[in-house]
Amino acid sequence: MKYVIGIDLGTGSVKALLVDQEGKVRCETSRSYSLQHEQPGYSEQEPEAWVNQTVDGLRALVQESGVEPKDIEGISFSGQMHGLVLLNEQGQVLRPAILWNDTRTTAQCRTIESKLGPRLYHITKNAALEGFTLPKIMWVQEHEPEVFRKAAVFLLPKDYLRYRLTGKLHMDISDAAGTLLLDVMQKQWSQEICDAFGIDMSLCPQLAESLEFVGCLLPEIADRTGLSPDTKVYAGGADNACGAVGAGILKKGDALCSIGTSGVILSYEDQEKDFAGNIHFFNHSRPGGYYAMGVTLAAGYSLDWLKKTIAAGESYDAFLAKVSEVPAGAGGLLFTPYLVGERTPHADSVIRGSFIGLDGSHRREHLVRAVMEGITFSLNESVGLLREAGVEVGTIVSIGGGAKNEVWLQMQADIFQAPVVKLTSEQGPALGAAMLAAVGCGWFGSIAECAERFVGYERQFEPDPQRAAVYQDLFGIYQSVYASTRDLNRRLQAYR
Ligand SMILES: Nc1ncnc2c1ncn2[C@@H]1O[C@H](COP(=O)(O)OP(=O)(O)O)[C@@H](O)[C@H]1O
Ligand SMILES: O=C(CO)[C@@H](O)[C@H](O)COP(=O)(O)O
After folding, report:
1. Does the annotation count 270 as an active-site position?
2. What is this enzyme's catalytic activity, as reactions (predicted)?
C-alpha cells in the first residue's frame, strides 16, 4: 500500500494526516502553537514554531504509523490564509508573521481604496480588508521601514513551511488570491498594484498551481522526520480551498460551512461572478475553478473564548452537553461574535461582541447556546449574501470543529434553512491537502475522481420548519444588533 501526507497549518495547530490509496486515514498527529496579541487588534506568530511543530508532528506520524517511509509517496499542504512572512536575501525571517486575524491595517485599507478605486476590484475581485496581505506589507513599509528595506520576498504561512521543508520558494495560486496582489482571472501578480504601492515585483514569489510538483524533502528534514528524501512535495492550497477539496465541493451548486477558529460559508464557482466585493472571490485548488466566500472572524474562537472563560479544562462534549435542553432562541439571549472585529458582512475592525437580553434566569447553557446561535447567525449573513447574488445555496456540507456536535449541525440546518451534511470522516483541510498529493502522485486523473474515493457523506440534517421560523424571526433582531452597538464600540475603543 502507498500513502500520502496532508499537512494543515492552522491558526492554533498543525495537523498531519497519513492517508492510504483508499482514502483511509492511517494515522494523524497534531501539534499546537500560540498566538501573540501584543496590542489589541494585533495577531502574530513565530514562523519557526510552525516548522518545529510540523517536523515534530511528522516524526511522530512516521513512528506511530509504522509505515515504511519509502511507501509515503507525496506530501502537500493546506494553510491559514493571508498571513505575511517576510524573508531577507538569505531566506531568513525578518519579523514575526502578521496573521489573517490581525486588524491593525485599517488606514492602509483606506489608502488602497483611494489609490486604486474600482481597479482594485477589477484586478483582484476582492475588497481591501484588514486581514489580507497587501495592507500588512504596507504597514511594515510605513512602520518598520528598516525591516521592509531588507525584505527580498514575501510568503504566506504554508508557503514558508514548504520552503523550509524543500528549500524551494513558491506561492500557490489559491493562496496568492488572498493577498490583494494577484490578478485573479489572469493568475498573475499585478504589476499595476505593485507599482501603485512601491512594491518591487521581485518581492512576489514564483506562482504554482495547487497540484504542481515543487521538489523533494531536504535531506536535513528527511533526517529529522524519518521520511524519505525522495518524498515528492506538491504545492497545496489555501485552507479554505483545501477544506472545499476535502469536502468534495468541486462543482457549481456545491456549498460548504466551515467552523474552525474562523467561520466560512463558501460556494463553488466555475466562472467569474460579480459579488461587488461583499464576498471574497478566490481561485479554487481545482484547476480553473473559483469559490465565493464570506468569513466570520471569530467563529469557533468565540465558543473557545467562552469555554476558557467559564469552563476551563472541561472537554467540549461536557461543555456542550446541556445545550440541547435549551430551546431555540436561548431564552431571549442573543450573542454577536465580534470578539476580534468582523469581516462579512461588516468589514469593521472596531466592532466588538455583545450579549443582548441577559436575564437573571439564564444559566450557563443559555450562554453556550446563545454563542453557538450567534456564530451561526453571523454565517447566515454570508448565506444571505450568496443567495442575494443569485447563488443557489442548496445542501451545505459542514466541516471543522463545529461539525463535531450534532446539536450545532441541526442548528445550522434550521438557521440556514438548508439541508446540512456531515462527512463520514471529518478531517477538514488536511484531507484536501492529502488529496492534492494523491492526485499529484498520479493516483487519480483529477481531484473529482479522487473525491469519489476519499469523500463520503454520513448524515443529512433537515431544517425543522418550527425552529426555522423561530430563527428567522430572531435573525432579524440579530441583524439589528450591529447597527445598535457600532457607535457604542467606537466610544469604548479608547478603554481597550
Ligand atoms: N466537540 C466539539 N463540538 C463543537 N465544537 C467544537 C468541538 N471541538 C472543537 N470545536 C470548535 O471548533 C474550533 C476548532 O476547530 P478546528 O477546525 O480544529 O480549527 P482550526 O483549524 O482553526 O484550528 C474550536 O474553536 C471550537 O469552537
Ligand atoms: O482569513 C481566513 C479566510 O479568508 C481564515 O479562514 C483563515 O484562512 C484561517 O482559517 P482557520 O484557522 O480558522 O481555519
Report:
1. no
2. D-xylulose + ATP = D-xylulose 5-phosphate + ADP + H(+)
